[in-house]
Amino acid sequence: MTRLLPGVIAMAAIVVASNILVQYLFGNWLTWGAFTYPLAFLVTDVMNRVYGASAARKVVFAGFVTGVICSFIGTQIMGEFGPLVTLRIAMGSGLAFLTAQLLDVAIFDRLREGRWWRAPVVSTLIGSSVDTAIFFTIAFSGALTFLEPANDVSWAGEVLPLLGTGPMAPLWVSLAVADWMVKLALALLALVPFRVLVTKLSPNPA
User: Fold this and answer.
1) Which of 21, 94, 160, 168 lies deepest, with the highest CB count within 10 Å?
2) What is the b/e burial string over 167-176, where b = at least 16 CB atoms within 10 angstroms of the residue's CB?
3) What three-state secondary structure class fits 30?
4) Under a CB-based contact definition with an 8 Å cutoff, are residues 136 and 171 in contact?
């Protein structure tokens, strides 16, 4: 278990930092948390490559527990428009993280025998896409208001040009697309630290 400790600490730090930074806007469509959260996939993939899928899943569950704790704390802190974390955001965050990360682990494990970059790229791109779709749909879609009737998310349903210039779409769709694009970009950039960390931690470079 000691060998997994750095991965657990890194994952917990990323989850905590993302939960804090998501409160701060970056431009019109993003928060600062969008730039830290995708690093969770890097941690998962490094642990998967060096120690295997079972070890990676343990790190994922540690991150999930950390996220649940952060969400609970957030529900107790009142902001200008109510609790910092609503029930829908907590549900979306937890389900998105667990589903996407475990999917990432499974896909990576299936592709681990291919070229070194294939498993981290494919698993992260698919995992990130699923993560974005689950979180934003559960947290902000008007079709799911029954999950938390008292939470008014009508602001997220305002129809605007996609990312300010595209076809008309609900605001939450623009937020999701912007977040997804950042995840995809970081998935490619993360190949550099992935290669470095795996080479450093493993006697046999990936």
Assistant:
1) 94
2) eeebbbbbbb
3) strand
4) no
Parallel, antiparallel, or unpaired for β 78-79 and 82-83? antiparallel
Residues 14, 18, 20, 25, Cα dihedral to 10°: 150
Query: Under a CB-based contact definition with an 8 Å cutoff, are residues 179 and 25 in contact?
Result: no
First vs last Cα of the chain: how many Å apart? 22
The Cα–Cα gap between 105 and 55 comes to 10
41 CB-contact burial (10 Å; exposed 0-12 / middle 13-18 / buried 19+): buried
Tell me the pLDDT of the chain (206 aa) as tens digits: 688 999 999 999 999 999 999 999 999 999 999 999 999 999 999 999 999 999 999 999 999 999 999 999 988 887 766 778 899 999 999 999 999 999 999 999 999 998 999 999 999 999 999 999 999 999 999 999 999 998 889 999 999 999 999 899 999 999 999 999 999 999 999 999 999 999 998 865 44
Burial of 158 from C-beta contacts in 10 A (0-12 / 13-18 / 19+): exposed
Contact 134, 92 (CB under 8 A): yes
